[in-house]
Design goal:
mainly alpha, 579 residues, 23 helices
């Protein structure tokens, strides 16, 4: 199958997915009665639902584009990069997870005023937004790249797909809030697992003898850390970025705030770490196999779409595309909801209109969702115009500019009493200035030396991997030094000391659910319904494949996938009865 091999059954499966998701979003909107329901899922979510939502929110279509590009070019290191994640999430569970829950806040920045000061709180609202929006823009761009390749027959540009996908994400996030995001995340993980495992199995069948296949790969393809992704890069860029993100990324730590009890955090962390360990080899085998099955791909960003089109029978490409967009939908749903919550509760309600009613808070949150989504799409279009960078380059450079400065004070604020508001502002300033200067300099150098980098591997290494590692370490160091020096430069005011003591006293008190569950969605029931409905629609499409296209192999594969989805849905419905 070539890049224009998408057929009617594939489009029908994509449409079926959207119908199910939008239907649940509309149905769940009636349960959004309070701001807590919209921004924190009512604080009643079970650990398995919060855990799968955290896992799904930790990646997007970037996983399919960036890491399969790395797998195609460099091999096993794509898996090694993601195997750093389980270690980081376990560290997050040990260091900050319970402290986030004990902070008893509705948004990730909700504790900053108590811990530091009102000024620090507002500064972090506005300095943290650029990092999240830049990262979200990359997710929309990567999703659009896969759709532009797979749906090339439609004749739409990547820019057009960015506009369409951005609109879908805004509408999805607008309707149901954090509760709908988390329920849909579980369904998305289920669909993703079925689709990528199916592609994994079919890829194994396509490559045949593993010995012959491994000998056909380039030398060093199984090296765990080849340049430009050497050990220094893995430690000083990937590890630092990941451990900071899992401890302070707004959309991720917000998942802790949805749990009814901190006793469930250990189970949640174990589930996330397990998924992060098992899934990378399954995700990236197609990218590695493409090096033999599809040698000489001009644009390696397209490898996952191209290998899927080559291997999958009619109908299954639609399922892969549904998985891709579901990945970005899950991530951006969490991001847009969290960012709108920060702007609504941490800015608008505190500084513009303190007397907001619950209904007005929900309306304001939805309005901010639209604004944030629109700005994110515009940033994605800007990134698409940059030359000389792959998506991972852009992602880590943006993080170097803002990540350490905006995340370290959050983590340190939960862990240590010694840092005060003045030190936090100094650390933020030092980290941001250092990061922005380094990143802008690097962007300029890469644009100037783009052609030379193609011919000089050593220059490419230092302007990509080497610079990334150095910039991240320097930004982290500048932020911490700024916090230390700023704190030591002037004594902490007595009022701030009292707030800090009261805050840390709360952190010593375990969190138990402090309200009523009320009338809420049953995650078992809704998830079961979504999986059964989508599986039934896939089964109907499989009959179309058999009767119209007379493809018995595709029919068997599509029917097996639909059976797996329906079986999962039935198990969830049974779980609802037991619950």
């Amino acid at each position: 199958m070539d890049a224009q091999g998408i057929r009617l059954p594939d489009y029908l499966i994509i449409l079926s997915y959207f119908l199910v998701v939008v239907g649940v979003g509309l149905a769940s909107a009636r349960y959004i009665r309070k701001a807590k329901d919209y921004f924190a899922a009512g604080n009643v979510m079970p650990w398995w639902l919060a855990g799968t939502s955290f896992y799904k929110a930790s990646f997007s279509a970037l996983l399919f584009v960036i890491y399969n590009e790395i797998a195609y070019k460099y091999g096993l290191v794509a898996v090694v990069i993601l195997w750093i994640s389980p270690l980081c999430i376990v560290l997050g569970g040990l260091l900050t997870a319970r402290r986030w829950r004990r902070a008893r806040v509705m948004t990730p920045l909700g504790f900053m005023e108590r811990r530091y000061s009102p000024i620090v709180h507002q500064v972090f609202v506005w300095t943290g937004l650029p990092l999240r929006m830049f990262d979200n823009a990359l997710k929309i761009l990567s999703t659009s790249i896969i759709f532009a390749v797979a749906l090339r027959g439609l004749g739409l540009s990547i820019t057009a797909f960015m506009a369409i996908i951005g609109l879908v994400m805004i509408l999805y996030s607008f309707m149901g809030g954090q509760m709908t995001v988390m329920i849909t995340d579980f369904v998305n993980v289920s669909i993703l697992a079925v689709s990528v495992v199916t592609l994994f199995i079919l890829t194994l069948g396509k490559i045949g003898n593993l010995g012959d296949f491994s000998r056909a790969l380039p030398a060093g393809f199984f090296h765990p850390a080849p340049e430009p992704y050497g050990w220094s890069y893995l430690v000083f860029t990937v590890f630092l970025v990941t451990v900071l993100s899992y401890n302070a990324s707004w959309a991720l730590v917000q998942k802790y705030n949805t749990l009814r009890s901190e006793k469930e955090i250990g189970k949640m962390i174990a589930l996330i770490a397990g998924l992060m360990f098992v899934m990378p080899p399954i995700f990236f085998l197609p990218g590695i196999a493409a090096r033999v099955l599809l040698p000489g791909i001009a644009n390696a960003k397209e490898v996952y779409a191209l290998i899927s089109l080559k291997i999958l029978p009619v109908g299954m490409m639609g399922l892969i595309l549904a998985s891709v967009i579901s990945s970005t939908m899950s991530t951006l749903g969490s991001e847009f909801n969290t960012l709108s919550g920060v702007l609504t509760r941490d800015f608008f309600k505190r500084k513009i209109k303190p007397g907001l009613t619950e209904k007005q808070e929900i309306f304001t949150g939805r309005a901010f969702t639209v604004l944030i989504g629109t700005g994110t799409v515009l940033l994605a279009m800007l990134f698409n115009a940059l030359q000389g960078f792959n998506l991972m380059d852009i992602m880590f450079r943006v993080f170097s500019a803002f990540g350490p400065a905006t995340m370290i004070p959050l983590i340190f604020g939960l862990l240590f009493k010694k840092f005060n508001a003045r030190g936090t502002l100094w650390g933020l300033t030092a980290g941001c200035i250092t990061g922005v200067v380094l990143v802008l300099t690097n962007f300029a150098l890469v644009q100037v030396y783009a052609e030379e980098m193609k011919a000089d591997p050593r220059l490419e290494f230092w302007l990509r991997s080497g610079w990334n590692s150095a910039a991240t370490v320097v930004s982290v160091t500048a932020t911490i030094l700024g916090m230390v020096i700023g704190t030591a430069s002037r004594p902490t005011p007595d009022g701030e000391k009292q707030r800090v003591e009261a805050f840390f006293a709360d952190l010593k008190t375990p969190f138990l659910f402090e309200g009523k569950t009320g009338d809420s969605l049953s995650p078992f029931g809704v998830i079961g319904f979504m999986l059964i409905a989508f599986g039934a629609l896939v089964a109907a499409v499989s009959l179309l494949v058999l009767t119209v296209y007379h493809d018995a192999f595709a029919f068997r594969i599509d029917l097996a996938v639909s059976s797996a989805l329906i079986s999962m849905g039935l198990l969830m419905r049974m779980g609802r009865k037991r619950a």
